[in-house]
Amino acid sequence: MRIAVVHGPNLRLLGRREPEVYGTDTLDDVNERLEALASELGVQIETFQSNHEGELLDFIDEAAGRVDGFLINPGAFTHTSIALRDGLVGVDRPFVEVHLSNTAGRERFRRHSYLSPVASGVVYGFGVHSYLLGLRGLVARLAGR
Ligand code: DQA
Prior knowledge:
Blueprint lengths: L1 E6 L11 H4 L4 H15 L2 E6 L3 H11 L5 E5 L8 H9 L4 E5 L21 E4 L3 H15 L3
Parallel strand pairs: 1-2, 1-3, 3-4, 4-5
Helix pairs in contact: 2-5, 3-4
The site of 1,3,4-trihydroxy-5-OXO-cyclohexanecarboxylic acid (DQA) has 10 residues, from loops.
């Protein structure tokens, strides 16, 4: 089983970006934790980050041919991007949406997600554990458990 982990805009700033909201783990730390869990679960992952909507769309399209599903933190595109939603639906692979912060408890504009209604599941509010829980959920879903 192979899964693509997609990090959206500004997530490369993790560690120094609003640490009181997003914690002090860097993006490399998050990816290392995911790699460790993936090998424990016996799955392969690849990771990708971009600040650009079109690059994210191109990656999803191109990666869909070699992966079984996506784990995605769409960052601010969560709240704005119909194109990202359409792209994920279009490649016909299950995906799990994750957020480090509790988006439901923050500004009003963060409460709406274009992706959540078409995601296999959503995990938010647990920092790096949102990714780890999301990976476990996606693997279970793909394994039909
Ligand atoms: C985020 C939440 C989004 O609202 C925000 O724009 C981000 C990060 C999170 O992981 O909590 O960039 O996706």
